[in-house]
Specification:
Among the domains are: about 140 residues, BirA Bifunctional Protein, domain 2; about 90 residues, no CATH class. A hairpin with a 5-residue loop joins strand 7 and strand 8. Helices cover about 45% and strands about 15% of the residues. The chain is elongated, with a radius of gyration of 49 Å. The chain has nine helices and eight strands. The strands form two sheets. A five-stranded antiparallel beta sheet has the order 1-3-5-4-2, with helices on both faces. Strands 6-7-8 form a three-stranded antiparallel beta sheet.
Length: about 325
């Protein structure tokens, strides 16, 4: 189920209510049956509804120039589920949507049928009933509402399987509901998917924001600017895609610059280390000093020579044969 919300900053309560109730697209079955849900509203008169919306708006506590006075919201189902759709199912889902959306608001809900699609229009006040507090939702709250109301539909009306879509929370690059339905019908990748894939490929190859943009141009995408700032890319048919909508925020693009700076610093460091190692290899290796014996002085040398001479003489004398002494008692 697709949920669309259009905000109005002017008090066009009567115009929206008149379209919902009086349009030729209002759904009335062959038996003349339809339904109108009025939540926190009295009477069955369109004029009285408009007055109650205006009276409730007069209780607003905080006034801003861009305050949302009402929202025109639509619940839409896939045409392939038309055979399984009934007024009773549409009314039950619309009442559950109001309960999950915020039961403190003012609501009018009317079923329509247009271009083979069943859908419900809701006129929703910008304030809670008689409190003066805003009925606005944050982006995350809206995402949760879409998922929760769809889960309710899946559990209670599983036969409406063609109207199940992907509601991505926090993923700006996710397909819109309309794109998802187109892909389901054709089986082909959407323009957003093709551009997103190309951006991812160029991002992996780039080492700076400038390189990233150049790679995109080489891929056939045109860069467009807004207020002098590069905002996104454009296909040849003129379809524009913002970088932020595809998940490539300004912060993510700045990361390319940080990576490039770190790469340059690392390159300089490696180059410096290489120069130091080359210089060390080119220097000659110093020879170790030879250990020279300590020589004696001249006086010590002369003394040693005389001692050696005496030792040599003694050795020579010891080696000569000795003469026998005469016998004192010769035999007769």
């Amino acid at each position: 189920m697709i949920v669309k919300i259009k905000s109005h900053k002017r008090a066009v309560f009567g115009r929206v209510l008149q379209y919902m109730v009086g349009s030729k697209d209002r759904l009335i079955d062959p038996n003349g049956r339809s339904f109108i849900i009025t939540h926190n509203l009295k009477s069955r008169s369109l004029a009285n509804w408009e007055k109650q919306y205006r009276d409730n708006e007069a209780l607003r506590l905080r006034h801003r120039k861009d305050s949302v006075l009402l929202t025109h919201e639509i619940l839409s189902w896939h045409k392939d589920d038309s055979a399984n759709m009934t007024l009773e199912k549409m009314e039950a889902i619309a009442r559950e949507y109001i309960r999950q959306r915020n039961p403190k608001g003012l609501y009018v809900a009317v079923p329509h049928f247009d271009k083979e699609h069943y859908h419900v229009h809701l006129c929703v006040s910008g304030l809670e009933y008689k409190t003066g507090k805003s009925l606005r939702m944050s982006r995350s709250e809206l995402g949760k509402l879409k998922k929760d109301i769809q889960q309710y539909q899946i559990e209670k009306y599983a036969e409406l399987s063609k109207s199940t879509v992907r509601h991505g929370l926090g993923d700006r690059s996710a397909m819109t509901d309309t794109e998802y339905q187109i892909k389901r019908r054709t089986g082909r990748e959407t323009g957003r998917e093709l551009v997103s894939a190309m951006l991812k490929t160029c991002y992996k190859k780039a080492n700076s924001k400038e390189t990233f943009l150049e790679l995109l141009k080489e891929s056939g995408l045109k860069i467009y600017e807004r207020s002098g700032k590069v905002t996104g890319v454009m296909q040849n048919d003129g379809t524009k895609f913002r970088f932020s909508r595809l998940g490539f925020t300004e912060e993510r693009l700045r990361d390319l610059e940080k990576t490039n700076i770190r790469g340059r610093d690392l390159g300089r460091m490696r180059e410096k280390e290489s120069r130091i190692m080359e210089r060390e290899r080119s220097q000659p290796i110093e020879k170790e000093e030879e250990i020279k014996p300590i020589l004696p002085s001249e006086k010590e040398a002369a003394s040693l020579s005389r001692q050696e001479e005496l030792n040599a003489m003694r050795t020579e004398q010891d080696n000569q044969p000795r003469e026998q002494e005469p016998d004192q008692n010769p035999s007769i």
